[in-house]
Amino acid sequence: MVTQGEDCAPFRISATTLGDLLLKGWDKSPTKEALVFPGERKTYDEVVRSVMDRARGLKALGIGRGDHVGILLPSSIEFVETLFAIAMCGAVSVLMNARYKAPEMAYVAQNADLAAIITNDMVTEHVDFGRRLVEAFPGLPKASDACALALDGAPLLKRIIMLGGRSMPGFVDQATFDTAAQRVGDAEVHASRLTVRVRDTAMILYTSGTSANPKGCLLSHEAVTREASNLANYRWSFQPDERAWSPLPLFHIAAMLCMLGAMDVGGTFIGQPHFDAGESLRQIEDERVTMMFLPFVTFHQAMITHPDWDKTDMSSVRLQNRCFAFMPERVGQAYRE
């Protein structure tokens, strides 16, 4: 227990809004790398510019204070920028599991009272968000106005924005979104940002729903920024040159707090769209990772049995955050060696 007096000196309670947390990191380190993902990296300057552009587009399409906006994106710089853009508008991010199938998407859209969904045109062996959304909302391709949808089962959902170069009937495409953004200035975005209070809802995360439908958990700006700041400054002792890494999905609170903690001190967050042991080892060495946020033992086991384990330079790592009660001897031995 902390007692009154000198022992209390290092402790500060820090709570702000998501938008201001980003700007605090930008104030500290405008030209430093903020986010690194495979094949892409951006400085704080570049992230803030992209966030403002996206926020202007959202405001132009009618998104405002208290609106619920679904994020259906892979873990990426685009995901983080979208999260902050929604916060700048005073709206609420609803983090949609990128693995959701059509029935789960339809359920969350209705249950969370979504006013909009932001997705992208990614098509891979496992992911085609556009196709999944059409399966969730069969009336989408027949919509007469992509900016004023009227979908069965989701009466409040008025627009689905598809980032990227692809266009699909019923979706607001990137060109339309960017054109709309030109009607709104940065000053209007900042005016919205300044109306946000720390105890306003910042995001809604859904539980796994293993035995029933997922339940939405409402988290305030204060809750997420206070926890991220406390973890970064007291538990992990992050420094401005911190390079924090986590391959966990950003629609989960664990990776979210690691990312926000790094940005709280003006450090760098390094992530992946999905966990891959070989890519993880490459990132740890090439990006000179200082903190590994990898809670689950199965991930560690995949890494220590990868052919590149023995030749990976992990000398930059000063800290690991793990969340398992017992470390298998094989895992502990591999790290000690």
Describe this structure in words.
By secondary structure, this protein is an alpha/beta fold. The protein has two domains: 6-14 and 224-336, Rossmann fold (3-Layer(aba) Sandwich), CATH 3.40.50; 44-220, 3-Layer(aba) Sandwich (Rossmann fold). The protein has helices spanning 18-28, 44-60, 77-88, 102-111, 129-136, 174-181, 186-193, 221-235, 253-264, 277-286, 297-304, 329-336; strands at 33-37, 40-43, 68-71, 92-95, 114-120, 159-163, 172-173, 201-206, 216-220, 243-245, 268-270, 291-293, 319-321. Strands 7-6-5-3-4-8-9 form a seven-stranded mixed sheet, with helices on both faces. It has a six-stranded mixed sheet with strand order 2-1-11-10-12-13. A hairpin with a 2-residue loop joins strand 1 and strand 2. The model has no long low-confidence stretch (mean pLDDT 92).
Which strand order do you get reading across the main beta sheet? Answer: 7-6-5-3-4-8-9
**Could you list the spans in which at least 5 consecutive residues all have pLDDT below 50?**
none
Helix-and-strand structural type? alpha/beta
Chain-averaged pLDDT: 92
Remind me, CATH topology of the largest domain?
Rossmann fold
Under the CATH scheme, the architecture of the largest domain is 3-Layer(aba) Sandwich
Could you tell me the strand content as a percent range? 15-25%
What's the N-to-C terminus distance? 36 Å
Coarse shape: globular
**Total E-strand runs:** 13
Helix-strand blueprint:
Blueprint: H1 18-28, E1 33-37, E2 40-43, H2 44-60, E3 68-71, H3 77-88, E4 92-95, H4 102-111, E5 114-120, H5 129-136, E6 159-163, E7 172-173, H6 174-181, H7 186-193, E8 201-206, E9 216-220, H8 221-235, E10 243-245, H9 253-264, E11 268-270, H10 277-286, E12 291-293, H11 297-304, E13 319-321, H12 329-336
Parallel strand pairs: 1-11, 3-4, 3-5, 4-8, 5-6, 6-7, 10-11, 10-12, 12-13
Antiparallel strand pairs: 1-2, 8-9
Helix pairs in contact: 2-3, 2-6, 4-5, 8-9, 10-11, 11-12
